[in-house]
Each structure stands twice: as structure tokens, then as C-alpha cells.
Amino acid sequence: MNRFVDLSPEVQEALANGKPVVALESTIISHGMPYPKNVETAVAVENVIRENGAVPATIAIIGGRIKVGLTPDELEYFGKKGLAITKTSRRDIPVIVGKGEDGATTVSATMIIAAMAGIGVFATGGIGGVHRGAETTMDISADLDEFAQTPVLVVCAGAKAILDLNLTMEYLETKGVPVFGYQTDDLPAFYSRKSGIKVPNRADSPEELAKVWNTKRELGLAGGMLVTNPIPEQYSMDSDKINAAIDEAIEAMNQAGIKGKEATPFLLDKVQKLTGGESLESNIQLVLNNAKLAAQIAANL
């Protein structure tokens, strides 16, 4: 194990004995939701994974130590410190670790650390992607390149709805990343079940996804796999309503001159306020739904 990585006793025992483990990111705790809802959600997500036969491994950097599996006190610390914690992608890991600071891992950073620890399945909310207007700004999330090189299966509710979903799918195709819709032929749009964009592959069971993932690894093909899992029907938001809120949020972001890693937290917070908190509840439910599916896939590997 890398000398900068600390496994929690629960995760260490699970990996040593071949038990299914599911990685979880920490940016959703620090940057995705307000306190205390962020900590409550993090605990609920871990519980869902345990209820479905796997061990949760929430990943974060605390005081320069890479943590794979957080204690309740560490979850609380992260939730309270919130936006003061540095959002950490691939490029930031050596900086945060080297300087002994705290880092909230994004999808790309969580994939890297999960692979270091030997964890092959990861549940998140929505992945990053190609931002709207990227044809002029070149704003493309590092998450997409990570799928092409890091061997982790990621379960998400699609790319975040604030992104350009068509361009995101084109980029993933260019990178050769297998993308599945779980029990759907239509790409989920985070807050909504459908985007009108067809996914290249469909799977109707965790067993089927586990089989394909095992096959990819046995073939020695580099990179990960993306499983898009629609938000439960009862929590799906009207696409016209959410898109109107997103358009308004993007306009406010542009006027404020917010760019880069600060863009997504700003937009999610603005959309939450514009929808009267409805988007936050949807966000929580889709993460719980993804955690359940990820645990079932891990249990079938």
C-alpha cells in the first residue's frame, strides 16, 4: 500500500478477505450540500451500502493523509469545515498531500485513490463533463480523462445537468469509455430520468454489469466503466423547470465571473435556491439510489 494511504480497519479487513467494497467521494460532503444535511446524507449512503452487502469506503485527504474509510468524527469534521476544504482533482493530490492539508476528493481523485487501494467500484451523484460553452472556454472536467485510464467502475445518475450532455457523451466515446444505462436506453440527466440522448449500452441487472466489468478487466483493457442510473421516479424533477433554473444559475455565474473548480458548487447551490430546495432532495435520493446499485454490483464481482 502507498505510504501516504491509511485504510480504516473495516476497509482493510474487507479487502484482505475479499469482501465487496464501494468507494465514495468526499466533495459531495464538503461542496455538494449544506451542513448538517451533508453529514446525514454521507451516513445514510454508507448505511445503504452495508444493507446491500458491501463495505463503504469514503475517501478524503485529512492533514495530508489519504483516508480510505472515514470515522464518524472525520465525517463530521468534513461536513462542518465544508467549502473551506480544497476541492481536489488529479492535479491537486500531490499538492494537498505534500503540504499536509485537507482535500475533498472529486470523481477523478476518488477513482485514483480507490484504484490505489484495490477498490473497483465507486458510487457518486453525477460526474463532471463538458461544460456548456466549452467550445470557447475549453472547460472540460478531468473526470472524463480519468475514465479512460483508471480501472474503476463508476455508478452515477448521469453527468450533472448543468453540463452539455451531448458533448460529454461524445467525449466519452472518443476516449473509448463503455457507458451503460441501468434499465434504460436514455441517458439520465441527474435531476431528471431522461435527457433524450441514447446511451450506447443497456444493462438490466447488477449481475450483467458485474459480468461486463470482469470481462473488461480480464481482457486487460485500460480504463474504467460508467454506469448511469436514473433517479427514482418519485424524485425526478420536471426537465423544463430544472433547465430554466440551470439557465438562470449559469447567467448569474457568468455575471459573477466564476470559473473552474468553483463553478459546479456555485451552480448547484444556486439551482437549489431557485427550486426551493427541491433539487437538494433529488440530489440526496439519487446518491442513495446509486449507492444501492454499486453495492449490488460489487457483491456480484
Care to give the gist of this entry?
The chain has helices at residues 9-16, 27-30, 37-51, 72-81, 93-98, 107-117, 134-137, 142-149, 165-174, 206-218, 239-256, 263-274, 278-300; strands at 5-7, 21-24, 55-62, 65-68, 86-88, 103-105, 121-123, 153-156, 179-182, 201-203, 225-228. With 301 residues, the chain is an alpha/beta fold.
Characterization of the model:
With 301 residues, the protein is α/β, with parallel strands linked by helices. Helix content is 47%, strand content 14%. The chain is built from 13 helices and eleven strands. It has helices at 9-16, 27-30, 37-51, 72-81, 93-98, 107-117, 134-137, 142-149, 165-174, 206-218, 239-256, 263-274, 278-300; strands at 5-7, 21-24, 55-62, 65-68, 86-88, 103-105, 121-123, 153-156, 179-182, 201-203, 225-228. It is globular and about 50 Å long. 50% of the residues are buried. The model has no long low-confidence stretch (mean pLDDT 93).
Radius of gyration: 18 Å
Runs with pLDDT <50, length 5+?
Answer: none
Shape label: globular
End-to-end CA span: 22 Å
**Oligomeric state as shown:** single chain
Order of helices and strands: EHEHHEEHEHEHEHHEHEEHEHHH
Question: How is the secondary structure organized here?
Answer:
Elements: E1 5-7, H1 9-16, E2 21-24, H2 27-30, H3 37-51, E3 55-62, E4 65-68, H4 72-81, E5 86-88, H5 93-98, E6 103-105, H6 107-117, E7 121-123, H7 134-137, H8 142-149, E8 153-156, H9 165-174, E9 179-182, E10 201-203, H10 206-218, E11 225-228, H11 239-256, H12 263-274, H13 278-300
Parallel strand pairs: 1-4, 2-3, 2-7, 5-6, 7-8, 8-11, 9-10, 9-11
Antiparallel strand pairs: 3-4
